[in-house]
Write a structure and sequence with these properties.
By secondary structure, the protein is α/β, with parallel strands linked by helices. Helices cover 25% and strands 25% of the residues.
Length: 279
């Protein structure tokens, strides 16, 4: 075999091995937030999303070692009816021992006919399910409003818009720092202008395939009808800002597709809130 051919095969193999690396990756975010009370500076949130009923060895232990003040779960923890959600129940049994856990629905959660039973089980464990509700979180003598919104469930634009309008109508007013948990990051432009300072989202799976230095390649199939970007969609991972609203998108942990993730390691997000220094 020619030397150049051997080198090409070797380089290709190395690229494939690196691209298929599926070890958990911890990503650290420190958003600077204008309306954050200084007492909440340093409040640490472990953000996970899109487990899709998979069993991930070491996930609970990794989150415990990170010592968060709160755990935010932004949907699709379970999958359609073809996958058991027992691995997720075992994970939640571990998570509630680490920190308060707050969860909202994702589209695959709602498509599972046993989702109501799943929510009842997690409620008994102490998980806070906050679809279309708000709760107040206190830390170091200061408070903030934590909002959750139900996944809009549908795939078509008109259904999504009607569902979002119903959810917004259910949420109370709150005078203070406002954080939102909402599954579909690709709906960011429909969430801005509603007074949220920080949004935590998932759903986009990092773009499934990631091209280093370019970004995610494809959106979830469930978002294609409502999407104008069939390839290289926006909001696949990381931090985005629109006016006074910051959104942080988790790449997710599981894989709902038959094709592997590529250059797209499963992510635990650690979001440490930072107040803007006004001196």
């Amino acid at each position: 075999m020619h030397l150049i051919t051997k080198l090409a095969i070797g380089v290709g193999t190395l690229i494939a091995v690196k691209g298929l690396d599926n070890r958990l990756e911890v990503t650290y975010y420190e958003p600077r937030l204008e309306n954050l009370p200084p007492e909440l500076d340093g409040f640490k949130i472990a953000h996970i999303s899109d487990l899709h009923s998979e069993s991930i060895p070491g996930l609970g232990a990794e989150i415990a070692a990170l010592a968060p003040d709160m755990i935010a779960v932004t949907g699709d923890m379970i999958h359609d009816d073809d996958r058991s959600y027992e691995p997720v129940m075992r994970l939640f049994e571990r998570l509630v021992q680490i920190a308060p856990v707050y969860m909202i629905s994702g589209n695959h959660d709602l498509w599972n006919t046993s989702f109501t039973d799943f929510v009842e089980y997690t409620d008994k464990l102490g998980v806070h399910f906050i679809d279309d509700t708000m709760c107040e979180i206190e830390h170091n003598g200061a408070k903030f409003g934590l909002f959750g919104m139900r996944d809009p469930f549908g795939k078509a634009t008109d259904i999504i818009e009607k569902s979002l309008a119903k959810s917004f109508a259910k949420l109370p007013e709150y005078d203070g720092f406002r954080m939102l948990l909402f599954h579909r990051a690709n709906q960011f432009t429909r969430l801005t202008g509603h007074g949220f300072d920080l949004i935590l989202s998932g759903h986009m799976h990092g773009g499934q395939f990631r091209i280093p230095g370019v970004g995610g390649v494809m959106p979830p199939k469930s978002s294609l009808i409502d999407s104008k970007q069939i390839v290289f969609p926006r909001y696949t991972e990381g931090t985005y800002t629109d006016g006074s609203t910051t959104m942080i998108v988790n790449r997710g942990i599981g894989n709902p597709m038959f094709i592997p993730r590529l250059y797209n390691r499963p992510e635990i997000g650690i979001v440490t809130l930072k107040a803007v220094d006004r001196q």
